[in-house]
Design brief:
The protein is an all-alpha fold. Helix content is 78%, strand content 0%. It is built from eleven helices and no strands. Helix 3 runs antiparallel to helix 5. The longest helix is centred in the N-terminal third of the chain and has 35 residues.
């Protein structure tokens, strides 16, 4: 007998989606905390006072975010490239079942969707981590300050992991458009089910709009927080304070 898959095979793509989501999770946690710690360290040793008076704060935060983005996305692309080369060289040594599964699950459009959503997802979270890092006065306070954004990110991760078992469910359709979870949820849906081009473009548009909005808010918080050496300000209080200063 022969089995012919019509559309996409959710069972064949499960492992690929699972690994891809975990890569995004670990990269955001690792490099997000690195960005926040870098900002807090500069503020702790008074380096920030010299930087902020001689350089535009917008350039400073963009420099940190883009540096983390280049390194993290570069590692993912390098990993995918090395894995592809390794599979091509040793494909004769792999079982036929594994090679068939890879042919069904890995394609250029799936990889492109993964990288696009990962790119803007990293930007979104790195901006938030940089803003939160500027609100603390000591490096030791970074972990406690990361609570709000880590809570949101871990919640998005858990929803995506649950959605691996029901990629066509309402929860995953909403998560694929919600900007804080779409970098993971849209990749799962696109790799495991058939997703319309309109839905993909809508998810990208919402994610980009959120990145632009969050970058604007993060720059305001960063400008205000870098010169604040008093008690740590909460994230939402910092947003209100930053916009109140602009209005005044």
């Amino acid at each position: 007998s022969e089995v012919e898959t019509l559309g996409k095979s959710a069972s064949a793509n499960f492992a690929f989606a699972y690994i891809g989501v975990f890569i995004i999770y670990f990269v955001v946690i690792l490099y997000g905390n690195s960005v926040a710690t870098s900002v807090a360290r500069e503020k702790n040793d008074k380096t920030m006072e010299l930087l902020i008076t001689n350089t535009n704060s917008k350039s400073l935060i963009w420099g940190k975010v883009l540096a983390a983005l280049v390194v993290s996305l570069g590692q993912i692309i390098l990993t995918i490239g090395v894995a592809a080369i390794g599979i091509m060289i040793n494909k004769k040594n792999y079982p036929v079942m594994i090679m068939d599964m890879l042919k069904e699950s890995v394609s250029l459009d799936v990889i492109a969707i993964y990288l696009i959503f990962a790119l803007f997802g990293f930007l979104l979270y790195y901006f938030l981590f940089a803003a939160l890092g500027s609100l603390v006065s000591k490096v030791e306070e970074v972990n406690s300050a990361m609570g709000p954004i880590q809570f949101i990110f871990i919640g998005a991760f858990m929803v995506s992991m649950i959605g691996l078992n029901m990629p066509e469910g309402i929860m995953m359709k909403v998560a694929a458009l919600f900007p804080f979870s779409s970098p993971m949820a849209m990749f799962i849906r696109y790799s495991m089910t058939t997703v319309s081009i309109f839905e993909v473009l809508l998810g990208i548009a919402i994610l980009i709009a959120t990145v632009v909005g969050m970058s604007y808010v993060s720059i305001k918080i960063y400008r205000m927080g870098t010169l604040n050496y008093g008690n740590r300000i909460g994230f939402f209080k910092a947003i209100r304070k930053a916009f109140k200063e602009d209005m005044d």
